UniProtKB/TrEMBL annotation:
<comment type="pathway">
    <text>Metabolic intermediate biosynthesis; chorismate biosynthesis; chorismate from D-erythrose 4-phosphate and phosphoenolpyruvate: step 5/7.</text>
</comment>
<dbReference type="InterPro" id="IPR023000">
    <property type="entry name" value="Shikimate_kinase_CS"/>
</dbReference>
<dbReference type="InterPro" id="IPR027417">
    <property type="entry name" value="P-loop_NTPase"/>
</dbReference>
<comment type="similarity">
    <text>Belongs to the shikimate kinase family.</text>
</comment>
<keyword id="KW-0479">Metal-binding</keyword>
<keyword id="KW-0067">ATP-binding</keyword>
<keyword id="KW-0028">Amino-acid biosynthesis</keyword>
<keyword id="KW-0963">Cytoplasm</keyword>
<feature type="binding site">
    <location>
        <position position="147"/>
    </location>
    <ligand>
        <name>substrate</name>
    </ligand>
</feature>
<dbReference type="InterPro" id="IPR031322">
    <property type="entry name" value="Shikimate/glucono_kinase"/>
</dbReference>
<keyword id="KW-0547">Nucleotide-binding</keyword>
<comment type="subunit">
    <text>Monomer.</text>
</comment>
<feature type="binding site">
    <location>
        <position position="67"/>
    </location>
    <ligand>
        <name>substrate</name>
    </ligand>
</feature>
<feature type="binding site">
    <location>
        <position position="90"/>
    </location>
    <ligand>
        <name>substrate</name>
    </ligand>
</feature>
<dbReference type="Pfam" id="PF01202">
    <property type="entry name" value="SKI"/>
</dbReference>
<feature type="binding site">
    <location>
        <begin position="21"/>
        <end position="26"/>
    </location>
    <ligand>
        <name>ATP</name>
    </ligand>
</feature>
<comment type="function">
    <text>Catalyzes the specific phosphorylation of the 3-hydroxyl group of shikimic acid using ATP as a cosubstrate.</text>
</comment>
Length: 192
């Protein structure tokens, strides 16, 4: 474990959080390509471990087990890796232990999208997101609203309304490079 070591800013993992369908997986991969870093999508890693899609994991093992696997994977990743671009699943940040691990070791970006834009995207994702299945639009809106205040705990919030994934990824890369450059020039420290 690297728990007590202060991780230099440039080496910290970059973590994307936000509601299902906001673009974490798509944009994370683009950021990784632009920065020549490894990309880790937590859902895809859990799917590889179990050789089945998340929908099947929910069906055969239950959501509770999925949440445990998600927590174990992310906490380990946070404390034992650096320089990764990581896309979380949209429910991960609801677990306090995951939030604490992410915020103490990494740089967390919240990809925000308004409800009115989000609902136009529902048809793209509903079949592959078990949490959205058998729910009315009102139920989903309540879940969306309930989770927003948890995503608000982050290092940087990006509004993705009216931007395509390339634009969002470029914006995040520019923000990061600026932050790294300012940190390099700071007389106080290399890390915080
Ligand atoms: N900025 C965007 N504008 C339009 N469509 C997007 C945008 N970001 C993602 N999408 C689309 O939304 C869907 C969900 O994207 P995904 O990256 O899987 O989201 P998440 O990982 O947050 O659930 C995909 O079909 C993707 O192409
Ligand atoms: O919000 C959630 O509870 C979930 C989000 C999904 O990931 P995306 O946010 O990438 O869709 C996936 O982890 C699972 O279906 C549960
Ligand atoms: Mg995803």
């Amino acid at each position: 474990m690297t728990t007590n070591k202060v991780i230099p800013l440039k080496e910290r993992n970059i973590i994307l959080t936000g509601f299902m369908g906001v673009g974490k997986t798509t944009i994370g991969q683009l950021i990784a390509n632009k920065l020549y870093r490894d990309f880790i999508d937590v859902d895809q890693e859990i799917e590889k471990q179990h050789n089945m899609p998340v929908t099947e994991i929910f069906k055969s093992m239950g959501e509770k087990n999925f949440r445990q696997m998600e927590k174990d994977y992310i906490v380990d990743l946070c404390y034992n890796s650096r320089l990764k671009i990581v896309s979380l699943g949209g429910g991960a940040f609801m677990q306090e232990e995951i939030r604490a691990a992410c915020l103490s070791t990494s740089i967390v970006f919240f990809l925000d999208l308004s409800w009115s834009s989000w609902k136009d995207r529902l048809h793209l994702i509903v079949d592959s997101r078990p949490v959205l299945q058998n729910k009315s639009l009102d139920d989903i809106e309540s879940l969306f609203a309930a989770r927003q205040h948890v995503y608000e705990i982050n290092n940087s919030k990006i509004s993705t309304d009216d931007s395509d994934p390339e634009e969002v990824a470029d914006y995040i890369v520019r923000t990061l490079k600026l932050g790294w450059e300012m940190n390099d020039r700071s007389p106080f420290s290399q890390s915080f």
